[in-house]
Amino acid sequence: MSRRASILALMTAMALTIAACAGDTGTTTTAGAEGTTTAAPGTTASPDTTAAPSTTAEGSGDPIVVGGTLSLTGAFAATGAIHKLAGDMFVERLNAAGGLLGREVEWNLLDDESDTANIAPLYEQLISQDQVDLIMGPYATPNILAAMPVAERYGYTLPQHTAVLAPLMTYACQFPGWSIGPEPNSFIPNQIADALDSLDGAVSTVALLTNESGSTAFISYGIADDPEDPSTLNILPERGYEIVADIPYPPGYEDWGSTAAQVRDANADLVLINGLGVEANSLIEAMQQLDYRPPLMFALFPAPGPLLGLGDAAQGTLSVSIFEPNEPILEQMDPEVREIVEEFAERAAAEEIPYTVFETQAAASWNAWEILAQGVEGAGSTDGQGICDSLHSTGAELTFSGAVTFDPAVNNFWDTTEGLKQIQGTEWVMVWPEDIAAGTLAGPTG
Amino acid sequence: MIELQAAVSGALNGSLFALMALGLSLAWGFLKVINLAHFAMILTAGYLTFELATSTGLSPIATIVATVPLMFVVGALIQLGYERFGVSELNSLLISYGLLIITVQVVTNIWTADFQRLPTEINPYASESVAVGSLRFPMPTLLAAGFAVILVVTSALVLERTYAGRALQAFGQDREIASAFGIDHRLLGVLLAGAAGASAAIAGMLFPIGGTLTPDLPFEWIGQVFAIVILGGIGNVTGTLYAGLLVGAISGLVAVIWTPSTSPFVVFSLVVLALVFRPKGLFPQKGG
């Protein structure tokens, strides 16, 4: 083989590998970690959304160190920054209220650089070398899945913010801060159908688009190789909604023009994109270029800020949420919630976090920290099994999600409080179910 | 009709990738440099376009007044570095991959890893299109096609009709012989690398007009861009454009006839077949 041919072959292999890797993980960065420690300055008042501090036999005066990683750089960094700020605020408030077991809490936070390959070694390091007392999960489902076996091996309880793929989270001592129940692949399509039912027949056809990565494909198609598993594809037709287009697309997909043509051709009442990040933005803009606007849109896990940035084009778009700081909701909650929301917005702006609203991501983070704190207080120690047992027996009282219980039979995924939010004006407004709604669900346009 | 619209949208999208591939193909074909830093320049130009447009309110297209000269200099400096250290073809691949990784990290540190989009008020093109009958030509990719045609035609004319172009072709075929005939390959190489950098600036300007910026974009581009370079023929500028349009149209058609997920399978199967049966590309040059 000539030298040129060898290089061509090498390049092709590299291109294929890089394309595959980019598609599969959406991550880009290299290995390594930079540690930061968030000490607890105890600056704010207002104790008490969390477990009440107490003094116990373990009250040695040494700080309790919570180890964990977040994606402070790399592809997930924007959301990682939200979780870091929420965690910082929680630890500060916790320490202001006396810490845990009468001891100050420190957060030994490492940067996993959005690289799943870094997760297991970093958690190994935190547990076996740094000998942290407790751990907090990383952000993003693949990373949480990577941390889970390490936690299990060392018997640490693992609170985690955002992994909602309940069937995969099999470690009995992992506790989700965000739950869509034990069957999100059933809950989400049913909740959408419930909301559509309330629109008195305004919606009857649906175009379904699906990012083929784990969580979104799970909601659209259920567990792979099991066509009977609950899924959007099964449930919506059972509920009387005809799926007129089913368009799976790969992660990192760029050619939205062709897909928009397909969606326009399907002419559905609802375009339901089970996608991630800014994929819904790309689809909306591609449809605009074809001079087409669907009557109603739903986007599963979008980046919330960019969709708002589309202005009129995204008006009425629906998505899922466990918390939105809408005024009617804040009025019904503990005054401290407003304080948290406002402090978060102020600090997020100061830290130049692009989307400064304390919503689902930050609430899930807060939930995870509360679960950890209440587990420790319930156990009266930092023993992993003790914390786990305590949480299983008493559950947790979460500021943003209320009282929850943990059943290992369903991988600790608690009864969800998730609802639907909708872009109305310049903000996301909780619109479903009606008992937690801050606004009225707007139906299809045009 | 939907197939025609998908093919048109796909082909126009492919022209943007052809534009990205142009500088890479030229550098590889004539300078024997596989410059992955080309993607770093496209990425940087994209973010500079975003920054300049959002901070000044300028049209994103107008930002090329600043980014084209800047990327020309960057491209030329990188080539000077390759020349200075006598970097081989294979080593250029490894070194420029390092440069790309460094750039991605720097961009992340400056602009964060969050999605960045040009606001509608300074980027009206994002939602515009040109209608011909029932066909729609999306404005962002129509602009890309326009710039791609201009650059490809200009490049082809320069290569075929100017002394510098013919000298570059001679240099690309045999360095020693070309040097023996007095061709200043260093100067020509630097100028060509600068021109490739300038084309990266234009591609970088066009991407945020139609898409969303994130620092890891180059890793999504690389596969398709190399497919276009290989199918078009390395160093074949018109072939690059044809390959871009072809790959885009095929991707669009496959997406609507089967699924979008099938497109990479079809495109890379084509690349493998081309490497086996047409290693000089699908569009051979005269005398090539």
CATH superfamily of the largest domain in chain A: Response regulator
Unreliable stretches of chain A: 16-59
What is the radius of gyration of chain A computed over CA atoms, rounded to a whole number of angstroms? 22 Å
Regarding CATH, which class of the largest domain in chain A? Alpha Beta
In round numbers, the mean pLDDT of chain B is 91
Largest interface: A-B, 67 and 64 residues
Describe the largest sheet of chain B.
2 strands, antiparallel
- The portion of residues assigned to helices of chain B is over 70%
Q: Give the helix tally of chain A.
A: 14
| Oligomer state of the chains in this structure | heterodimer
Provide the structure class of chain B. Answer: mainly alpha
Q: Quick one: overall form of chain B?
A: globular
What does this structure look like?
The complex is a heterodimer of chains A (446) and B (288). Chain A has 446 residues and is an alpha/beta fold. Chain A has a four-stranded mixed sheet with strand order 1-3-2-4, sandwiched between helices. A four-stranded parallel sheet of chain A has the order 8-7-9-10, with helices on both faces. A three-stranded antiparallel sheet of chain A has the order 11-14-15, with helices on one face. In chain A, helix 3 runs parallel beside helix 4 and helix 8 crosses helix 9. Chain A is globular, with a radius of gyration of 22 Å. Chain A starts with a helix and ends in a 14-residue tail after the last strand. With 288 residues, chain B is mainly α. Chain B has one domain. Chain B has eleven helices and two strands, in the order H-H-H-H-E-E-H-H-H-H-H-H-H.
Could you give the topology of this structure?
The complex is a heterodimer of chains A (about 450) and B (about 290).
Chain A: H1 3-25, E1 35-38, E2 64-70, H2 77-96, E3 105-111, H3 116-129, E4 134-136, H4 141-154, E5 158-160, E6 174-176, H5 184-197, E7 205-211, H6 214-221, H7 232-238, E8 242-249, H8 256-266, E9 270-277, H9 279-289, E10 296-302, H10 304-309, E11 318-321, H11 327-332, H12 335-350, H13 360-379, H14 384-394, E12 396-398, E13 402-404, E14 419-424, E15 427-432
Parallel strand pairs in A: 2-3, 2-4, 5-6, 7-8, 7-9, 9-10
Antiparallel strand pairs in A: 1-3, 11-14, 12-13, 14-15
Helix pairs in contact in A: 2-12, 2-13, 3-4, 5-6, 8-9, 13-14
Chain B: H1 2-31, H2 37-56, H3 64-84, H4 89-111, E1 129-132, E2 135-138, H5 139-161, H6 163-173, H7 175-180, H8 185-210, H9 217-232, H10 237-257, H11 262-277
Antiparallel strand pairs in B: 1-2
